[in-house]
Write a structure and sequence with these properties.
Blueprint: H1 3-20, H2 25-31, H3 36-43, H4 51-61
Length: 71
């Protein structure tokens, strides 16, 4: 798995969990105090996200950070 594939897989998992929670990218971004464009970049795998940001996202999605790494 390449670095790009890895980031895309994490983003795909975030998107999947977000949709299960019936949230839009914009709603999740607002809850995480970030711009919608940044959230979209994370979900598309275009941004290397920090552990701190992953934790913020996990808290808002009511899941564990490890859930983003299940490929």
């Amino acid at each position: 798995m390449t670095e790009d594939d890895y980031l895309k897989a994490i983003g795909k998992n975030i998107t999947s969990i977000r949709k299960k929670r019936d949230l839009t990218s914009k709603e999740l971004a607002l809850r995480c105090f970030m711009e919608k464009s940044n959230m979209i970049a994370i979900e598309k795998g275009r941004r290397n996200v920090s552990a701190k940001i992953l934790l913020k996202i996990a808290i808002q999605l009511k899941c564990e950070v490890k859930d983003f790494f299940e490929f």
